[in-house]
Description:
The structure is a single chain. By secondary structure, the protein is an alpha+beta fold. The chain folds into 2 domains: about 15-175, Jelly Rolls; about 180-345, Sandwich (Jelly Rolls), CATH 2.60.120.10. The chain is built from 6 helices and 25 strands. The strands form 5 sheets. Strands 2, 12, 13, 15, 16, 17, 19, 22 and 24 form a 9-stranded mixed beta sheet that branches. The longest helix is centred in the last third of the chain and has 13 residues, at about 330-345. It is globular. Bound molecules: fe (ii) ion. Fe (ii) ion binds near residues 242 and 246.
Amino acid sequence: MEEVQQQQQKRSWRSEAKTAYEEWQVEEGIPRYSGSYIENLNTLELGNWARKGVKGGFVNLAGQELDDAYVVEIPPKGQTKPEHHMFEEMVYVLSGRGTTTVTQADGVRHIFEWGRGSLFAIPLNSIHQDFNSDGSNPARLVAVTDAPLVHNLFHNTDFLLNDSFQFKDRLNVDPERYNGGGKFLAPKRWETNFVPDVLKFKLFDQSERGAGTSVSFELAENTMAAHISEFPVGTYKKAHAHGPGAHIIILSGKGYSLMWKKGDKEKGRYDWHVGTMISPSDRWYHQHFNTGSEPVRYLALRFGGNKHPMGSGFIMEYGENGDQIEYEDEDPEVRRMFEEEVRKNGAVSKMGAVPSRKLNS
Ligand SMILES: [Fe+2]
């Protein structure tokens, strides 16, 4: 009896109604992809997206409705319809070349040119439009937004898509930011609206997460943010866990990630290559492994901006100890699997011996 009551209680936690975000997705009428990863964003099948005037598809990963992703493809010499919206948007260029215009209500217009590897953010609610400048090849873009969070908060699509409020604090910034200009807010934190090529951006030591380098981006005065990490051939990162919403795009190299919930015996394995997107679930451990012959570089589009933080308790927070598993504390199977994979690929592990455990003082 007690067990039945508990189950009923559990069921009542979630409403049977669709969320405002889910309803909006149905209205938009394009394919929707879920799960923990998309094996190849470059070949994801897309449908006609009437509102944007191009083909598109939603990507909803890690079973959460806080942030999401979508992919669009702009045909040769084609363009998206102009739009504005009350959710933040960061865009990565998967392929092709083109331009984007951002227009303010006072008529000021910014135009910037992008190509494969570019990253940019649209200032909240500003009118923008993307153009493919290539006459023979499509351009494919992937965007990460906080549309689910904002849709579910306001549950009013008209407000989200048609309100004309101008965020002067986000628009009145150094116009050079649209040309790739910016400044370091901290030694590893670059502020801009546009990064011409994340594949070439200079990175800095990030040895606290194991081998590798990184840099963070604060974009367009957003609360959302991004970072790039790179780690060398024959190495892997330390496992760690945090809140949901990070969308990781593989920019170079090949390997795999392990993801698991605290206490799980089995770890899920996700093999990846350039163009894969992977997203860890809320507080699941995740760990990335380079088994190929070149450095792995990835872009993470996520919550957790440092300039405009969301405060204590918000979703990208780490646990008390950073929720990181040091190499010496990890399951020995993790190292064994990595060394076997590296051998299979004809590469050599550079991880050295497993460090000895630190003694408690
Ligand atoms: Fe992470």
